[in-house]
Amino acid sequence: xxxxxxxxNQKGGVGKTTTAVNLSACMAAAGFxxxxxxxxxxxxxxxxxxxxxxxxEYSVYHSLVEDKPLSEVVRPTLMEKLMIVPANKELxxxxxxxxxxxxREFRLRGLLxxxxxxxxYVFIDCPPSLGLLTLNGLVAADGLMITLQxxxxxxxxxxxxxxxxxxVRESLNPGLRLEGVLLTMHQHTNLSQQVIDDVRSHLGPRxxxxxxxxxxxxxxxxxxxxxxxxYDLKSQGARAYLALAREVVSRG
Length: 252
Fold this sequence. Notes:
Blueprint: E1 3-8, H1 16-29, E2 34-38, H2 44-48, H3 60-66, E3 75-76, E4 82-85, H4 94-98, H5 107-115, E5 121-125, H6 132-140, E6 143-149, H7 158-171, E7 177-186, H8 190-203, E8 207-213, H9 216-220, H10 228-231, H11 236-251
Parallel strand pairs: 1-5, 1-6, 2-4, 2-5, 6-7, 7-8
Antiparallel strand pairs: 3-4
Helix pairs in contact: 1-11, 5-6
């Protein structure tokens, strides 16, 4: 049975999709059968793995709204052990269309119930909000990974996200656990180090040892539709995500 990890933060631009794409790729490269489920209407995780989001016959929208099995939506990527459940702008309307549906928060969980058995790791990339799509991701997951930028306002909004997680745990998904907090976009400055120190002092062992650097190749790779390990294996970004993959496995 696949381990389901949702990657979320209501703030945009904090390395969430970059992490979803590259961590998924590293897990697949390590030999794990992996699928990335894109539930962000921007579809950046989809295009980041080389799948044309504007040329899709079916997307995750058709599963969430029209009950199409994920097995009919999932697409291969350039990596043998990595699949993608793609998303595109059609998903924008899903939050509105799902409002009147019974058990609307459980749509993704229901879709994953048998589908996840085909994989060892299932990653979910959420939109930068705490709306119904992200809620579906939190309800469907075994664990939550939070990406946190090494910037001055890093902790701003984190308490709101953790409050949401507590509410989800209490009423919708008691098995949801915090996998860890991943620090991203690190630069060798006093400010970045201060943020790291502050986050570690607040959250202790829940913060991953791996820190993702601000790296040009990590920014370039998506425009080529490749994860970083295919774009530049020797880069700092590739080494960081390979280290994160090892840490995720070791944490069990």
